[in-house]
C-alpha cells in the first residue's frame, strides 16, 4: 500500500498530476481540486498523502494534501455505491470542516449540488456520516479558493486565461495570487483583475 509520496511535479493531467520520486519512478495520482490548487508549479517539490485502490484491471492512486482529507476520502468510499470518483467530487466541492458542518446541519440539499450526487444519495451520505462526523477534522485554510463555495471558480478562471492565449504555467500563479487576496471573487472578476495587472506591468 502506497500511503505517502514526495517528489518533483512533472506534469498536470486530466485527473491530477504525475509525481516523480527521487528514485526516478513516476506516479500518476488522481486529486481533488483542493489539492490541485495547492500544488507547486511544474518542477517544484510536492508532498501527497495517498490511498491506493486495487481493481481487477488497474491500480489507482489518489492523493491529498493532508492526512485528514485522505481519512475523509476513506470514510466516503466506505459508503455503499459511493466510489472514488464521487468521493473526489465531494472533496473538490467541500473542505473537511465544511462537510462536517453540512452533516451536522443535515443539509442534504447543499451536498446534492455535487455532480453525480442526487438528493437520495445525499441523504444517505448524511445518514452514514452522522455517527462518524466527529472524526472529520478541520484542515488548513485553502486561501486560494472561496471559503463557502465550490472551488470551480479557480479552475474556471485559469481556463479563461488559457482561452485568452496564456499558458497553464502563466495562468495558475496569477489566478492563485488573486484568489489568495480575494477568496470570494468569482472567475470573471478574477480574469479582469489578472488582465489589469498584466497591462499595468507592461506599461
Structure write-up:
It is found in: Cytoplasm. Keywords: ATP-binding, Cytoplasm, DNA damage, DNA recombination, DNA repair, DNA-binding, Helicase, Hydrolase, Nucleotide-binding. Belongs to the RuvA family. Residues 151-203 are annotated as: Domain III. The chain has 203 residues and is α+β, with helices and mostly antiparallel strands. The chain has 3 domains: 4-64, Nucleic acid-binding proteins (OB fold (Dihydrolipoamide Acetyltransferase, E2P)), CATH 2.40.50; 67-135, DNA polymerase, domain 1; 152-202, Helicase, Ruva Protein, domain 3, CATH 1.10.8. Helices cover 47% and strands 17% of the residues. A 5-stranded antiparallel beta sheet has the order 3-2-1-4-5. Helix 7 crosses helix 8 and helix 7 crosses helix 9. The radius of gyration is 18 Å and the shape is globular. Residues 138-150 have low confidence and may be disordered.
CATH class of the largest domain: Mainly Alpha
CATH superfamily of the largest domain: 5' to 3' exonuclease, C-terminal subdomain
Percentage of residues in strands: 15-25%
**Sheet bearing the most strands, described?**
5 strands, antiparallel
What shape does the CA trace take? globular
Q: What is the count of DSSP helices, taking H or I runs of 4+ residues?
A: 9
Query: If classified by CATH, what would the architecture of the largest domain be?
Result: Orthogonal Bundle
**Spatial extent as radius of gyration:** 18 Å
The arrangement of helices and strands along the chain is EEEHEEHHHHHHHH
Contiguous runs where pLDDT drops below 50 for at least 5 residues: 138-150
Which class best fits the helix and strand makeup? alpha+beta
In whole angstroms, how far apart are the ends?
A: 54 Å
Protein name: Holliday junction branch migration complex subunit RuvA
GO molecular function: ATP binding; four-way junction DNA binding; four-way junction helicase activity
Organism: Humidesulfovibrio mexicanus
Region (Domain III): 151-203
Amino acid at each position: 500500500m502506497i500511503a505517502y509520496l514526495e517528489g518533483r511535479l512533472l506534469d498536470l493531467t486530466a485527473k491530477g498530476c504525475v509525481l516523480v520520486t527521487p528514485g526516478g519512478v513516476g506516479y500518476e495520482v488522481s486529486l481533488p481540486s483542493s489539492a490541485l490548487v495547492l500544488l507547486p508549479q511544474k518542477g517544484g517539490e510536492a508532498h501527497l498523502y495517498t490511498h491506493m485502490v486495487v481493481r481487477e484491471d488497474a491500480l489507482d492512486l489518489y492523493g491529498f494534501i493532508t492526512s485528514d482529507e485522505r481519512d475523509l476520502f476513506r470514510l466516503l468510499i466506505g459508503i455503499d455505491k459511493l466510489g472514488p470518483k464521487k468521493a473526489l467530487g465531494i472533496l473538490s466541492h467541500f473542505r473537511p470542516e465544511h462537510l462536517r458542518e453540512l452533516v451536522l446541519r443535515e443539509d442534504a440539499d447543499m451536498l446534492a449540488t455535487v455532480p453525480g450526487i442526487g438528493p437520495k444519495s445525499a441523504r444517505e451520505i448524511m445518514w452514514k456520516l452522522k455517527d462518524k462526523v466527529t472524526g472529520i477534522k478541520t484542515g488548513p485554510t485553502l486561501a486560494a479558493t472561496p471559503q463557502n463555495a465550490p472551488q470551480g471558480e479557480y479552475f474556471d478562471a485559469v481556463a479563461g486565461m488559457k482561452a485568452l492565449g496564456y499558458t497553464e504555467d502563466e495562468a495558475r500563479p496569477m489566478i492563485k495570487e488573486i484568489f489568495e487576496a480575494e477568496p470570494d471573487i468569482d472567475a470573471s472578476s478574477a480574469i479582469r483583475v489578472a488582465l489589469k495587472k498584466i497591462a499595468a506591468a507592461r506599461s
